[in-house]
Design goal:
By secondary structure, this protein is an alpha+beta fold. The protein has 15 helices and 18 strands. It has helices spanning 6-13, 33-37, 57-69, 118-125, 142-147, 155-158, 186-195, 227-237, 280-291, 310-313, 334-344, 396-407, 418-421, 426-430, 435-448, and strands at residues 25-26, 50-53, 74-77, 91-94, 101-104, 109-113, 165-171, 177-180, 201-208, 214-223, 245-253, 268-276, 298-299, 302-305, 322-329, 354-359, 381-388, 412-413. The longest helix has 14 residues, at 435-448. It comes from Planosporangium flavigriseum. InterPro entries: BBE, FAD-bd_PCMH, FAD-bd_PCMH-like_sf, FAD-bd_PCMH_sub1, FAD-bd_PCMH_sub2, FAD-linked_Oxidoreductase, Oxid_FAD_bind_N, Oxy_OxRdtase_FAD_BS.
Amino acid sequence: MTATHPEASAALTATELVGRLAGPVFLPGDVGFDAEIAAWNLATVHRPVVAIGATTTADVAAAVRWAAEHGLPVAVQATGHGAVAPATGCVLVTTHRMDEVTVDPATNTVRVGAGVKWARVIEAAAPYGLAPLSGSSSDVGAVSYTLGGGIGLMARRYGYAADHVRSLQIVTADGSIHDVDADHHAALFWAVRGGKGNFGIVTSIEIALMPISTLYAGGIFYPGAVATDVLHAYRTWTSTLPEETTTSVAILRLPPLPEVPEPLRGQTVVHLRFIHSGDADEGARLLAPMRAVAPAVIDYVDKMPFTAVDAIHQDPTDPMPGWERGAMLADLTPEVVDAILAAAGPQVELPLVMVELRHLGGALSRQADVPNAVPGRGAGFSFFVLGPLFPGLEGIVPAVGGAVLDAVTPFITPGTPLNFAGKATPDQLLAAWAPEDRERLLQIKEEYDPANMFRFGQAFVA
């Protein structure tokens, strides 16, 4: 490799960044480099030319300008939960040090820095009786989750998390800093809320908080043997639920590990998740039909503070290697349920951790007050497949997971939000949008990132 190659040139001159930035600069071989670039999804191993630990928006802008000077693309990572593909030969900007959380109880809003996890937002909002539209795990980065759509715990009542972004700050490909809202750079504001990191690096967002402090929520684990009864009952039951109730159901193949509760350890089970943001007695009445379907292995649905919401889905907290893909379903018909059970029911030996359905509709079907680019508002359910990419499974899990998705292909409707798309091609990602929205997104991309500097992660331009 000669010194005229952009990567070599950058590696030789990256030390000049030290004087431009408040945050640290890491080159391959430096102490701390591997830890800085590590993703939560251990199957994704980044190989950047340089990693920049941004502490401010000015750091991000300087990093982007420096990358442009050296002809290098730019990737960004907060927690690495959504790292579905490696970023190589680039400048990797890490944002986990950008940890601003400022609640304004007078307006029921919070300003969130690019590196903040939902746990911090939940903790900061709780004393005011407020809650964010966070998802199944509070360990996930709030900004990326929100800009990728955000189908949260109260999604049917309040819609996508992206629907409640009031403003954001973004660094675009020329290193400019833009404060963006409905009245300033309106087209970019539309695109980023749903188009995620395709247009620049979002360094902070202002989002609305909801007047929620408690939920009637939790989960029920059923034995895998009753999966057919549970999924078909779920299909009919969801049509009776009000928008205050958001649910999901998953077939889980749990490992024989000590951290898994003994009755579930090493078992295939069906996990119903139930979140009712209204009266607890009403929540219990609504849940009663599913409680009557079959005896539970564990039933832990009860009144809980919002600060305890991680107990609902019980997502893993330790980094792991994984493969994931999702799709949207127009409806959950008997044929769809039968197809899922045939491909992924407990009678099938599969190297998958989870096959999941989420009930959509309600506020998710309505466009935000300030329209955005989140696709999928016509879908009734989402379908999601997750498998572990442990050594020896790297080729098997994607093939098996793909076959499970193939089983529901006749029932898929376009519109999968980026957060659920997994490792997809640019064409597959773009297929989520209607032709007119697709064209608009590409025009905005051309305006703000004509050289396609931001082409990693879930990028819809190759």
